[in-house]
Amino acid sequence: MSAFSKFHLEKIALFLLIGCFLCLFFIIDPEKHLFESDFNEHTDFLEQTKINSKFYYSIPQQTSLMPGDFIYYKNSENEDYQYFEINEIHYKRGSNLVISSKENNLEGTLRKDLVLNKDWKSSREPVVLKTSNGNENILITDIDLIVGESSILPSEDIASISKSNKIWSTYQRTYSESSLHTIKDRPKWTNKKADSNSSDYDLFTPPIIYIHEGKLTTRIPSKEDAKEDIEPFGLELISALKTPYPLLLVGWVGDVPYFQLKEDSLNMSGGKITRNRIVPQTRYKKAINPSPGQSKLIACDANDTEAWFVVENFEVQQYKNSKTGGVKPVGIATVKDFISNRPPFKINSLNTDAPAGDYQFKFSVRFPGISEEQLLFSSADTGKIFTFSGRDFEISQVDLDLNKVMITKKDPRVAENTSRTFAF
After folding, report:
1. Residue 57 and residue 157 in contact, taking contact as beta carbons nearer than 8 Å
2. Under the phi-then-psi rule, with left for phi > 0, alpha for psi from -120 to 50, and beta for the rest, what region is 325?
3. Best label site of 50, 204, 233, 253, fewest CB within 10 Å?
4. Angle at Cα 329 formed by Cα 324 and Cα 331, nearest 5°?
5. How far apart are CA 38 and CA 305, in angstroms?
């Protein structure tokens, strides 16, 4: 090969290399790549829904958005994206979700509403997912990602955005927030402050040597903060006992049952116990200071906040005693309790201690230097606050399906509240 041909081949190779570089530069330009329309862009309106006095916006598709992520939007004629941050995400009960955790990926139906905020990683609550293998309990701290339909609580008012014809995207861009609007500043040389003590010594400067606790050091020893002893949570579960329902089925006339309060039978002192006629499908509440002989349970309407229970169904069945072979009629009432808000349960005329799924909890309260006390509450006391020695204990959650109770401690001397879950 002649020197002339070799020279021209080298020039051609150089031009091809420069051309490839320029093509790659324009193809991989981050701003151009990130703003193309192939990243899940949509024009559906975000529907506003009110949940627990807050206005959420429903995402009309399955996403993997988590609190702290962003939603980007723009006008159809404008290529500049704007964005807002997601403060909270709400998943409705019954939603089909795929939850990715440290252990594995689970797909199933959510058993109860789930709300996650930006501090969701610090939550101690479990998520109950109904899968093909039964109920699965997943700790929120173990969750990496949730995929499913959800509603978001934005960091700003987006009512005007949700009702306009915007193009929006859930694609999470990997550049920093400042790069949307500004170009990163070039690094600059800065003079170090002489008294900052941020480094051992500067270039060509002999270090100053200090002696601290018999050891040589080039930094001024800082005063160590005194570590305050962490106070124990202070609660210990003593017992969790099922409590019988406070109503007894004592008889019936036709299709109408008669009940009496269990407290009347316990406090009986020779007087006549009042039998209360209860009409099925009618709500009842306790009467206030009834006269002797009057019913202690009175009917009320569906709007009465003091409504106690309703007999949804009543029937009479023939019961055969397996020991004697005798047959006797037994009344069976299906009761819905509005105070405990538990699923309907049955009370029969043979059982004087019908369980209604309610529990009575007993805790010991112990703090250093303070006399021991007791905390008593029932499973219907969710949300109540009990105070001991200036510390508030809130019954945050009672889960009778998972047999767990969560209590939150609020100490005015400590900035953050602490929660503890007890199994029973």
Report:
1. no
2. left
3. 204
4. 130
5. 53
Contact predicate 115/150, CB 8 Å: no
Position 51, amino acid:
I
Q: Which residues, in sequence order, are CB contacts of 129 under 8 Å at separation 6+?
A: 97, 99, 106, 108, 109, 110, 111, 135, 136, 138
The secondary structure of residue 192, as a DSSP letter, is: P
Residues 6+ away with beta carbon under 8 Å from 131: 106, 107, 108
Looking at residue 32, its pLDDT comes to 33
Cβ pair 154, 57 in contact under 8 A: yes
Q: What is d(CA 56, CA 54) in angstroms, rounded to the nearest whole number?
A: 6
Strand partners, 328: 319
pLDDT at 43 over 60: no
pTM: 0.38
Best CA proximity match to 170, nearest among 241, 72, 262, 96: 72
The neighbour count for residue 236, using CB atoms within 10 Å, is: 14
CB 335 within 8 A of CB 235: no
Q: Indicate whether 196 pLDDT > 50.
A: no
Tokens 């014809």 identify what position?
A: 165
Do residues 394 and 336 lie in contact, with contact meaning Cβ atoms separated by under 8 Å?
Answer: no
Contact between 309 and 280 under an 8 Å Cβ cutoff? The reply is no
> Given a cut of 70, is residue 39 above it in pLDDT?
no
- What's the pLDDT tens digit per position in 115-130? 888 888 888 778 888 8
Amino acid at 241: L
> Other C-beta atoms within 10 Å of 1: how many?
6
pLDDT in tens, 153-190: 888 777 666 555 667 777 766 544 444 443 334 444 44
